[in-house]
Amino acid sequence: MSDTSFSVTAPGEAGLRDFLALLKPRVMSLVVFTAFVGLVVAPVPVHPFVAAVAILFIALGGGAAGALNMWYDADIDRLMRRTERRPVPAGRVSEGEALGFGLALAGISCVMLALAANVFAGLFLAFTIFFYVVVYTVWLKRRTPQNIVIGGAAGAFPPMIGWAVATGGVSLESLLMFALVFLWTPPHFWSLALFMRDDYSRAGVPMLTVTHGRPAARGWILAYTLALIPASLALAFSTVGGPLCLTVAVVLDALFLRGALRLWRRDEAVAEADGFAAEKRLFRFSLLWLFGHFAALLAERALHLTGWGGWA
Ligand code: HEM
Ligand SMILES: CC(C)=CCC/C(C)=C/CC/C(C)=C/COP(=O)(O)OP(=O)(O)O
């Protein structure tokens, strides 16, 4: 995420980089990539200009959600080392500016997506922003360790939005892409929460590692990784998958499972002593895992256009 972006501006003096940081550009890059793949693999071709405009507004909508999240979370972001330098807690952007910026961008992106693509896609983007900001950030994040499981749905909607841009609707394939991101979110986030537990504890955010301890989180990471495997294979065998997707899925799933098993077996004292190296590795690998699956869908589609790829 973009909280690591530094600015030379003094407190109260917002620079362009600060407003860019409000969009959480690093996280949103993968969100937007999954939306792009959802759009491209759909069976209805989209004019390249419409596709480019749609992706731009999905990116801006995702960024708006990030800005609204940072507006609401400024108090807890101030208490965590990872987030204390963000524009709002650091005082470079006021809460009012972040709120206004987020709301304006959210409104513009949803309306423009509805006009450029279709009303369903625009409403779906609005619902996703609502889900991330209101359901996850405002309602669940500070209340329950299930926050990221339920709230994670927001991050899983973008490939469905991409699909909706092309088709105007929902399908089994777009639901399988949703399931892939939805089941991936807990191992993605909880592996990070294993080595960031103290930050969340300081801020009073009830992440699983704080409320139930690290050993429980290790067990849940393994459980979700096991659930992720059938979802990834089902997607590979669907109409948007093919032999390439299946190969990538088998390799990445095996590596993810190996990493999750390793974390599960780890002794807490050993993990603490080596600075949570294996946990950090699995977190980084989770990003590669998701990117790899969606890149494989894209490659399968490209092969399909040349007469190869796909199951048919
Ligand atoms: C509720 C769901 C999620 C939670 C709680 C979560 C949480 C986090 C956190 C706390 C970080 C560390 C960011 C930092 O450097 O400060 C992170 C990194 C990241 N997340 Fe997630 N995440 C979620 C869903 C997603 C989704 C759906 C995607 C993309 C599809 C995603 C992509 C990324 C990426 C690309 C990074 C690395 C950013 C970097 O390079 O620093 N995350 N996530
Ligand atoms: C198109 C669209 C609207 C997309 C939204 C996609 C989305 C919800 C992605 C989730 C990304 C994320 C960083 C969640 C963590 O928030 P956090 O508040 O727990 O993380 P933080 O502590 O780093 O702020």
UniProtKB/TrEMBL annotation:
- Show the stretches that span the lipid bilayer: 27-44, 50-72, 93-114, 120-140, 147-169, 175-196, 217-235, 241-261, 282-299
Superkingdom classification of source: Bacteria
Query: Listed GO molecular functions?
Result: protoheme IX farnesyltransferase activity
Instruction: Report the Pfam families cross-referenced here.
Output: UbiA
Q: Gene for this protein? A: ctaB
Q: How does it associate, per the subunit comment? A: Interacts with CtaA.
Instruction: Please give the pathway this protein is involved in.
Output: Porphyrin-containing compound metabolism; heme O biosynthesis; heme O from protoheme: step 1/1
What topology does the record note for this protein and the membrane?
Answer: Multi-pass membrane protein
Which InterPro entries does the entry mention? Protohaem_IX_farnesylTrfase (IPR006369), UbiA_prenyltransferase (IPR000537), UbiA_prenylTrfase_CS (IPR030470), UbiA_sf (IPR044878)
Signal peptide start and end residues: none
Q: Name one GO biological process term.
A: heme O biosynthetic process
Q: What else is known?
A: Carbon 2 of the heme B porphyrin ring is defined according to the Fischer nomenclature.
Per its UniProt record, what NCBIfam families does this chain match? cyoE_ctaB, PRK04375.1-2
Q: Where does the record place it?
A: Cell membrane
Coarse class of the primary localization is membrane
One GO cellular component this record assigns the protein to is:
plasma membrane
HAMAP family from the xrefs?
A: CyoE_CtaB (MF_00154)
Which key words tag this protein in UniProt?
A: Cell membrane, Heme biosynthesis, Membrane, Transferase, Transmembrane, Transmembrane helix
Protein name according to UniProt = Protoheme IX farnesyltransferase
Q: Which reaction does it catalyse?
A: heme b + (2E,6E)-farnesyl diphosphate + H2O = Fe(II)-heme o + diphosphate
Any idea what job this protein has? Converts heme B (protoheme IX) to heme O by substitution of the vinyl group on carbon 2 of heme B porphyrin ring with a hydroxyethyl farnesyl side group.
Q: What is its EC number?
A: 2.5.1.141
What the record says about family reads: Belongs to the UbiA prenyltransferase family. Protoheme IX farnesyltransferase subfamily.
Q: Does this UniProt record's set of keywords contain NAD? A: no
